[in-house]
Write the structure tokens for this entry.
Amino acid sequence: MSDLKPLMLATSPTVTVEEYYVDEAKRISGNPKQSLWIEYQDRSDQFFAGIWASEIGEWRISYTEEEYCCILTGESMITSSEGETFTVRSGDEFVIPAGFTGTWKVIEPTKKRFIVYEKA
């Protein structure tokens, strides 16, 4: 029997928040401030989980990682480089696969819980 115990994520972040703005080279509209709370990160720096929030704006995205998302509040539109659009709102759960490119547009300030895995 293992002595490992599961780590439970807090329902509200108790870790330090990192605040930043979308890189100018990626921005399409607005200048959204984003906030990031990393609640768990493994020793390899390949797997982590937390909460992300963004103000209104739009930017280009290019995923090298696999990301599970659960929208907690707000509304956003994710558009693939092929033009397929997905609107995500509070309660929606989805995965963005590695290799996905397109845009992320925050319609209403959005907060999501995320789990990311990035291959070495």
